[in-house]
């Protein structure tokens, strides 16, 4: 049922993916047991507390609001993360239009989708099982989170690296919200050029004069070519539109962070599932060497598209960066650069996630060893030329100070370069 950030799977789609194999891994494999194994995620925890009467969600009777603010507070999802998508790209597409977009809120582990007059939808990264999907009815009464399986029709495919997961799409959109995929249809991560992002999405903040598809409506539903791309974005949503939402923003920085994070979540799930299946079926670590290489490359932002200066106006950037953890010099893998590249220190903050820590020990060992080989300079490869020696040293020092369970060899002194 939950299909946020996506369209029908039958549509052809360009992709800017990590290179990990996207062949589908069976949900029913004994090493996976997607529908049977216990879940470890914040939504499953909340579902249990609600069922036991240990937690209650306050109901907001404002039109189109319902349990949304209480749910966001309970799941620790910041209002500043709000993004608005106006393309008709979910099961609730009949409710979505440019004057009634769907709101998406997110944190490191999950996203909450809300469209006026419809269900509240939740997609969460389970520590072992990848994307798990839930709905919550807006009607006042006894709130109940319902796990949904039909979402896998779109969220378990090549676009999610062959595991239950997440993806964002950029699709030119008509004035009535209908998608025009023949004009463009991109699965977005940090490698996508900015000029091809944000089709079907509102965007606020400051992107200078960089072109993009955001905020654009194609007047002719049968158009065979794109009009000129918009330049710049407003600081806030127009007042008539913003009045119906929890904040007046669809922040450019939040867009960039989410687009990186969605694929990073899939990368972790894919590696974990490959190792679990290989262990059960008698495979070897050698068989999975390419997956480790591709995963580490994604975490190190290899192939990231260059961006010019971008600034947010919602407060998301400040709140995100403040989450840390930081070393004794105040450096953090959450520090944003937003000029040239997304992060000041280009190693993904998902290394702190429960999904990373829940990887099989063999996978963790292989990721850490590959990461050390790159950061220490032991591995010379043209793809890492953008990773400056000073950045490599800083990343290692930040990890040593902030990442529990880091192998001891990271604490060796890096030779002066």
Note down, in words, how this protein is organized.
26% of the residues lie in helices and 11% in strands. The chain is an alpha+beta fold. It has a domain at 253-411. A six-stranded antiparallel β-sheet has the order 2-3-4-5-6-7. The protein has a three-stranded mixed β-sheet with strand order 1-9-8, covered by helices on one side. Helix 5 packs antiparallel against helix 6 and helix 6 crosses helix 9 (361-375). 47% of the residues are buried. The model is unreliable at 1-16 (pLDDT under 50).
* Through-space gap between termini: 53 Å
Silhouette? globular
Number of helices: 10
Q: Strand arrangement, largest sheet?
A: 2-3-4-5-6-7
Helix proportion:
25-40%
Major sheet description: 6 strands, antiparallel
**Fraction in beta strands:** 5-15%
Order of helices and strands: EHHEEEEEEHEEHHHHEEHHH
Report the radius of gyration as a whole number of Å: 21 Å
Structural class: alpha+beta
Query: How many β-strand stretches?
Result: 11
Name the assembly state.
Answer: single chain
What's the mean pLDDT score?
91
Q: Which residues sit in consecutive blocks of at least 5 with pLDDT less than 50?
A: 1-16
Task: Indicate the topology.
Elements: E1 14-15, H1 42-51, H2 68-75, E2 83-85, E3 102-106, E4 110-114, E5 120-126, E6 130-136, E7 145-148, H3 152-155, E8 168-170, E9 186-188, H4 239-242, H5 252-281, H6 289-299, H7 316-322, E10 336-339, E11 341-343, H8 354-357, H9 361-375, H10 389-402
Parallel strand pairs: 1-9
Antiparallel strand pairs: 2-3, 3-4, 4-5, 5-6, 6-7, 8-9, 10-11
